[in-house]
Structure formats: C-alpha cells, structure tokens
Amino acid sequence: MGYNGVMSDSQHTDLLPAYLAVGEDALKREAVIARLKARLGTMGDMAFNSDEFDGESAEGAAIAAACNTMPFASPVRLVYVRNVDKLKKADAEELVNYLKAPSATTVLACEAEKLARNTRLYKALAAAGPKAVIDCAPPKSWELPKRVRAMACTHGITLTEGAASALVELVGENTVHLDNELKKIALATAGTVGADLANLVNEAALRAVRHGRRVVTQEDLLASFEFVIAGSEKKNSVLTEFEKKLVAYHEVGHAMVAYKPCRRSPSSPTRKVPWATPC
Question: Which of 30, 157, 200, 267 is the most exposed place for a label (fewest CB within 10 A)?
C-alpha cells in the first residue's frame, strides 16, 4: 500500500484497528503518521484521546492498556508507537496478543525503520487489513531529483531539475535532511523573484572575491541576501537622539510582531541597524 492510502478511506468504519508504516524513508513515515493524526483529529479532540510510546523504552503491557482505554468525547482514539521494531520480544508479544482481539475504538499506529516480515508482530499488524502495512521504502537514487522538486513545491518554491540534482549531491539521499534544507531555502527566499535571486548569487560571488576566496559560502549568501533585499547599511548616517529612539521603537516593533504569532516560521535575522531601504 502507498503512503497516501491511509487517507483514502472516508468513514470511521473503514479505519483499520492497526497500521504499520515501515521503511527507511523517515520523511514518508512521518507523512503517514501525520495524515492519520489529521484524519482522526477531524473526528474528535485528540488531546484527550491519544498516547505515544517509544519502542526503545515502552512496555508492551502499557501499550496494550492504552489501546484498551475508552475514548472521551470522540468515537476513536489513537495509540502511536514509534520504533516498534525496537520492542523487546516479550513486549512485542503483548501487542501480538492484543491484536488478536483489538479494541473497536482504538487505532494502533506503529512506525519502524525495519521490521522483518517473518516476525510475529509484523504478521499480526498485517492481519489487521489489506492496507494495514504502508511501504515507506526510500526512493531510488535516480528518482530523488524528481522527489525533491515535488517536496520543494510543498514549501512554496520551485527548483529546476539541475538545482534538485545539485541539492541531492550536496546534502545526500536522506529525505529528512533534504526537506530541512528545502525549508531553509524557502525561508531565505520568501518574497523574492528570479531577478532577486540572480542578484543575490552575483552579490555573494562578489563578496567571496573581495574576501579572497574562490568558493561562495553560506555566510556570503546570507550577507548578500540582506544587501539585495534590505539594502546597504547607513554606516555614515548621523542620527539625532530623537531619530535613534524612533528607529529603535520601529525595529523592535518588527521583532515583536514577528516573534509573537503562533505557528510561524522562525524570524531570522533580527537586527536593530537602520538600512537604506525604508519599511
């Protein structure tokens, strides 16, 4: 079953009592669990109806007890077990026994990087239904650039095939690391267009040459971003004390507004230096 399959059902009665997201693609596993949580969240308040365990330290009896707990103000509850492949044999057997007669009001979501198909736990989870096991195998090397371009679109940016290939070459094939770098790129280029980015790269190259380097560094790119987007610093401007106070209030206001809202991207960088381009 593909990782989109968790969200293909539309009714509570179609939910399986257990799911297993297994494979080396950590980003895909995260997506499976996130989609399942989102779906269950539309049915009731998951703050009162979810438990999370880590297979490296959890006890099977505690997981089974959580699964047998009745939901509150919701038709269903979620029990999520990460690293289920790290459970001790006796603890895994507790889950096998639970899955022989699972609760009708609980969804057990298990996540594992590797879990052999011949283990009793794998077989018990797979027996929950034909779509219970979600394959999260990593993409092939030749598929990665296309996958990266699709990931970039989810962050509101567009990459050429060459740029995607270059990013894979620099970062590696770990999709979590690639996604993190895409988030940084999206944050750094928010509100820019192609011409801005061309100027940014040119300015970064000039800065590297001025510092006697043949390679552009991250520091060069950050400095050039500030120069292209915000303009040069007014190092030679002489402000009166009153003007300094006004500028301070103004810039601190920007920082406070950027810092306060919930579910925001981090505000970076925050400065109190007046720039040539007015806000």
Answer: 267
